[in-house]
Design a protein that fits this description.
This protein is mainly α and 103 residues long. It is built from seven helices and no strands. The protein has one domain.
Length: 103
C-alpha cells in the first residue's frame, strides 16, 4: 500500500485521474475498485471514502469528461450500442455517431 500521505483533495484527484485513464482504455462502465486500488497502491475502501461507491465515481468521471470534452470516454457507450443495433444501416449508424461527436 502507498505510504505517501496526500491531502483529501489530492487523493480524490488521484483516484479520479486513475478512473479517467481506465475509462479511456475500456469504458467508464467497467470501473472497478480492485483495479484502481492496485494501480494506485491504495485500499479499495478509499474509492468509497471519496466517491461513495462506483456509481458515484462514474458520475464524477462523466462530469469531468464533459468538462474536458473527452470524447474517448463519452462516445464509447454510443459505439457499443450502435454495434448491437442490427436494423440500422451503416450510414444511419455513422449519422448517429457524428451527432454524438458534435454534442
Amino acid at each position: 500500500m502507498s505510504t505517501e500521505r496526500k491531502t483529501p483533495e489530492d487523493r480524490s484527484e488521484q483516484i479520479l485521474e486513475c478512473a479517467m485513464a481506465i475509462s479511456r482504455e475500456k469504458d467508464y462502465r467497467c470501473l472497478d475498485r480492485n483495479e484502481i486500488s492496485k494501480r494506485l497502491g491504495i485500499s479499495r475502501g478509499l474509492v468509497n471514502t471519496y466517491f461513495g461507491n462506483i456509481e458515484g465515481l462514474q458520475h464524477h468521471v462523466i462530469k469531468r469528461a464533459l468538462e474536458l470534452n473527452d470524447r474517448a470516454i463519452l462516445v464509447q457507450p454510443v459505439l457499443d450500442k450502435l454495434e448491437q443495433v442490427e436494423h440500422l444501416t451503416l450510414p444511419e449508424k455513422r449519422k448517429i455517431l457524428l451527432s454524438a461527436l458534435k454534442s
